[in-house]
Amino acid sequence: MTANRINNINTALIILSCAVAFVIPFELFLFSYAVLGPLHYLTEIGWLHKKNYFTKGKYDFTFLIGLCFALFFFPGLAHLAKDSTFVADVLAFAVLLALIFALVKDRLYRIALVALAFLAVAVVNKSTAYLLLMGIFLPTVIHVFIFTLAFMLFGALKEKSFSGFLSIAVLIVCAASFFIVKPESLHYTVSAYVQQSYFQFELLNFSLINVFHLDALSKTSEIFSSNAGFVVMRFIAFAYTYHYLNWFSKTSVIQWHKVPKKTLFLTLLIWLLSMALYAYDYNLGMQALLFLSLLHVFLEFPLNVVSFTGIGKALTGSNLPTARVVNN
To answer: Which end of the chain is least crowded, N or C, by CB within 10 Å?
Structure first.
């Protein structure tokens, strides 16, 4: 499949995601997160592993896995993991590690930079803005929207593709439309089941509403009944849905036909079991898959670094170190 064809398919997927998000945002998010999400985590981690996670060292990825694993499973950190500041610190440190792993090969420089990264996190972790950015927005909307946009821009700049730039323009216009077009006559009601299932993401919506000054909500439950709540939810549903669809459209990246049968069988089995768990109890499914969800965010950080350095190199013509990334 040609790059132009994939870009055109992506443009259509962007418009489709936008249209559905306008009408049933909460339901679209819950469907995408439960059905598309787990398969995305599994297939992307498999692809990243083949690419050595876009790091300079063979075993760099184990440190990112270790950080994510410790956050969930080390008894000594379990209590700290309930502290949102600690979670933000771990994510910030993981980003800085990814920056080092993707760009620096010399061992002594790495050791010095890791020490500086640790100190940097300790110094800057006092502000509310830091907590919002690293603890709430980074693993959610920044991951699914900003990093996806960067990946698309990197590909379009490399290919010098009009269809690629068109997809990016459509993505930005659709994202902006949720904050510009605010239909209030859709008679949209969020069911009790949907509200209960979305419980663990309420803080994300509430925080976005406050950051963009869309409304002055007094409690998180108002995201299900206010126009500001619907505006933000449309954007979130759109961003997550297209993030997943963008990945699955890249057939030459996943290469289903080249995946070993045992790996493919195990991937599909885990995917089916995860969907069954979500169907049985959505919150239980979300808790069970949370580690896998966050793990793929951690492991994708070096790729995000490569995307941004690639964009910088393409725009400035400089010789920033980048790795080869297949975008179609």
So the answer is: N
For the whole prediction, is pTM greater than 0.85? yes
Task: Kindly state whether residue 327 falls inside one of the protein's structural domains.
Answer: no
| Domain interval for residue 86 | 3-316
pLDDT tens-digit profile of 102-114?
Answer: 999 999 999 999 9
Task: Say which residue the tokens 């418009």 belong to.
Answer: 15
Which residues make Cβ contacts (< 8 Å) with residue 49, sequence separation at least 6?
A: 61
pLDDT digit string, tens, across residues 119-177: 999 998 878 899 999 999 999 999 999 999 999 999 999 988 899 999 999 999 999 99
What sign has the CA pseudo-torsion 73, 77, 82, 84? negative
Distance between CA atoms of residues 281 and 256, nearest Å? 30
Residue 321 lies in a domain: no
How many structural domains does the chain have?
A: 1
